[in-house]
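Morning!

As promised:
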Amino acid sequence: MLLFLSPWIVGFALFTLYPMVLSFYWSFTRYNMISAPQWIGLDNFKFMFGLGTIDGIHKADPYFWQSVRNTAWIIVVGVPLRIVFAMLTAMLLTRPKRGVHTYRTMFFMPSMAPKVAAALVFVYLLNPTTGPVNQLLNMIPGVTAPLWFYDPSWSRPALVILGLWGIGDAIVIYLAGLLNCPRELYEAIAIEGANAWQRFRNVTLPLITPVIFFTLVMGVIDGFQYFDQAYVAGNVSSGQSVVLGSPQGSLLFYGVWLYTQAFRYFHMGYASAMAWVLFIATMAATAVLLLTSKRWVYYGGGQQ
Amino acid sequence: MLIAVSLAFAVPIIFMLLTALMTDQQALSPKLWPHPFVWSNFITVFKSVDLARYTWNTFLYAGLTTVGVVVSCVPVAYAFSRMRWRGRGLVFVLVLSTLMLPVQVTTVPLYVVWARYLPAWTGINFIGTLKPLIIPSFFGDAFSIFLLRQFFMTIPDELCDSVRVDGGGDWQILWRVVIPLSKPAIAAIALFQFIWSWNDFYGPLVYLGENPSAQTLSLALANFRGMHHVQWNLTMAATLIFMIPVVVIFFLAQRVFIEGVTLTGVKG
């Protein structure tokens, strides 16, 4: 038994537990990889939340709360939109008798595309002057096409659109959930004279709450670590690799700021503290969702 | 309606293809249709950057991590599904809980380990090489262990018992019964891992950043625009080359993917 388990035991010890212990310890230190970690108590956390100072230079991390707000925005706006769009598209897919496979392929494939590639394509598509999207928008009279990745108030919406392009995996999960709904229930409620909305509200929606819950939890966990698309879109549209989170910090997400602290400034102590705050926030959010799930997630018969 | 939605999903790919075939000026003009078609962009892009090397690096990373994950996760998943031992459920919860751990919690200290601790101890340089990305894959991956275990659980006990009656141990059961019956699940984790590594950006960004000759395609592409300021035609051509293996694998093994996503989604 131990022999079979050994790859995981060794891997867990070396690549999970040991680094976790290290970063937990470093989160209370100042550590720049050159000199040994120096114990500074809770200073990293105070500096992070704006309650204290490190070295007496800055009162607080000037970008921490901005990165928290940006990350909250992308989760609160992005995750529900993904869920609604994936569910609606999957519902459309339950209707046709033919061609389901072709459609499913078309929807699913973009979700397999590398995030770096997706970000590059959307920076091109949404280019304010030469991109096809704005050329189309400019043809409509009275419409001022947004500057997308060049405008701090449109850069995050642009990322949400990019994210919607990749919801194919969620569509497939919703489709499987919808096809699992027992026919008898629809027939029973149809006899009672229910309209389409009542059928959705009283049969479909309760039956797919487990799927909604799963995509919600995964969406929130991924949202906390949002990085690739923001990093690439910010870099490529600004044309420089030093300006992170451009334009004007609107794409400075928690993950981007943590990366900058760790691998640009080599503030390993502070980055460890940020990583642990991220971990605790992820666990707290997941716990809250799990607790509320008892009220609205329906695990009835027919589900595994 | 459905046709309109599916077209919206196809539009980015179509524009990518069209732009990849344009001249540099056309890509920046309002024209949507390439004239003339510049097929040579796909050759030019290999000359202007070392795309062949990046492709090879990406292939090494994806291929070796796939081998690593399959070799390490099959026996682990067997221990979690076909063997009885005290605390199995609890340890399995531990495996699953690592899925929730943000990568940064381990990446920050692991970077220091690969950059400082290990070189000081072994004298080998790890930063700027693919080693820190490949080695951990040989020590199990929570998602793959989970997916394989779900599949192994469905194998009937009688088949395993028949091997035991013949005097075979766990290794025989694994070789003669479990692996032959689980080919679809093993294929699924292999393909998921291959595509995951092929697409991975964070790992290469952290570990390869300073060595251009070790870069993978994702990393090279993210820097591509910086070097070639507005050459969208070449950027799109390179992006297409980057996506081709993903698309090919997807079409060859579509069912494996969709069943894999459904299995983890609905049962998770």
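The mean pLDDT of chain A is 89.

Hope this helps with the figure draft.
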